[in-house]
Specification:
Elements (H helix, E strand, L loop, with lengths): L4 E9 L4 E8 L3 E2 L14 E3 L1 E2 L2 E4 L5 E8 L9 E6 L3 H13 L9 E3 L11 E7 L9 E11 L4 E14 L7 E3 L3 E4 L6 E10 L5 E9 L5 E4 L6 E3 L3 E9 L3 E5 L6 E5 L4 E11 L5 E11 L7 E3 L14 E6 L5 E3 L8 E6 L3 E3 L3
Parallel strand pairs: 2-25, 5-15, 6-12, 14-23
Antiparallel strand pairs: 1-2, 1-27, 3-12, 4-7, 7-10, 8-11, 9-10, 11-12, 13-15, 15-19, 16-18, 16-22, 17-19, 20-21, 22-23, 24-25, 26-28
Length: 356
């Protein structure tokens, strides 16, 4: 039986602060009974890999991330939790700053997973979230969402997903902008890999026509949130889910020949997501492009890290980033090396990081 773990690395900054890394792993144990046939496995529930979420200065972003049930039966009684990556001092400072400005305390990323407590086989569900409020001193961060579920033999499983967010520093008029790409990895029993990217309307007071949102590799497709032919206004953020068939041979339609041909998708798939847009008033045209990849499932540990919050040494002495293992095997952790100008003072992120 694996034990849920949280481990940390503390590093001293040259400026007198600390860098703290939190390693989280989760696994199986005895718990509530899900009922029904015992066909649930540890990899049935997965949370999309996510591109970085854009957040505008002085505000927060409200959007969604998708969770999938790739198993054979409906899974009910799914519980979700979230852990935001902020230090205590940073959180207090941010809370005081927001309250003094007459704004709500938005130091933590919050989620609404009320629609996702039960997911039918082969279906997905959107988890709503609201990022913390950002400014130049609190410009980026991350959070870990965990989903816990059980089979009919009272065995519980936990899966995790990382949400990174960062401030949109450019105030220019650049059309519909894809904030970052995404690297997708399929679960052990899944035939599809999923990832979510975030597209926003740039500038202030503009409305853009999204003339074309498309992937240049036919093995990649938009599965949810397609905004082709729609309009996107400044500061609005649209979640777009991408997918690719992996772990099997699939029939893929070739754009160049308009024919269907068998193609093996047991290797890494790479492509680009392109957003072509134009200003609804001036007609000015824009292009935004990001890289996208999809990898089939492979045995072993898969480590994912969150974004390190910026450390304002005048108000806080610590920061942290999360590390999760989304593979199907435990990770044996080796040496941890501090970047230039920092020193590791405490390191509990050693030994084993369990899968999940």
């Amino acid at each position: 039986m694996h034990i849920n773990s949280q481990k940390k690395i503390v590093m001293a900054l040259a400026a007198g602060g600390f860098l703290l890394a939190s390693c989280g792993g989760a696994s199986s144990s005895g718990s509530s009974n899900n009922g029904g046939a015992s066909q649930i496995t540890a990899n049935d529930i997965t949370i999309d890999k996510a591109g970085t979420i854009p957040v505008f200065n002085g505000s927060s972003t409200k959007s969604v991330i998708y969770v999938h049930n790739s198993g054979k039966i409906t899974i009910s009684g799914i519980n979700f939790s979230v852990k935001s990556n902020v230090s205590a001092n940073s959180q207090v400072t941010n809370s005081q700053r927001l309250q003094s400005a007459g704004l709500a305390d938005s130091a933590q990323l919050t989620i609404d997973a009320s629609q996702c407590t039960s997911i039918p086989a082969g279906q997905s569900c959107p988890i709503g979230f609201i990022t913390p409020t950002v400014d130049s001193k609190h410009a980026q961060g991350s959070a870990v969402i965990q989903a816990t579920f059980a089979d009919s033999k009272n065995k519980t499983y936990t899966t995790s997903g990382v949400l990174n967010y960062s401030r949109v520093a450019d105030k220019g008029q650049n059309g519909a902008v894809i904030h970052s790409g995404v690297s997708m990895t399929a679960a052990a029993n899944a035939t599809q890999a999923y990832g979510t990217v975030y597209v926003y309307g740039s500038g202030d007071g503009h409305v853009y026509n999204v003339n074309k949102l498309a992937l240049d590799n036919p093995a990649l497709k938009i599965s949810q949130g397609d905004i082709n032919g729609r309009q996107l206004q400044s500061h609005f953020v649209q979640a777009v889910e991408l997918s690719s068939p992996v772990n099997s041979s699939q029939s893929v339609k070739s754009n160049s020949k308009s024919t269907t041909a068998a193609k093996s998708l047991n290797s890494v798939i790479n492509g680009n997501l392109n957003a072509q847009s134009s200003d609804s008033q001036s007609g000015a045209s824009y292009l935004s492009t990001v890289g996208v990849s999809a990898a089939p499932f492979s045995d072993g540990a898969i480590l994912t890290t969150g974004i390190m919050p910026l450390i304002d040494v005048s108000t806080t002495t610590s920061g942290s980033f999360d590390v999760i293992n989304s593979g199907n095997e435990d990770a044996i952790l080796g040496a941890t090396t501090a970047p230039a100008g920092t020193t590791i003072t405490t390191n509990t992120c050693t030994n084993t990081l369990v899968s999940g």
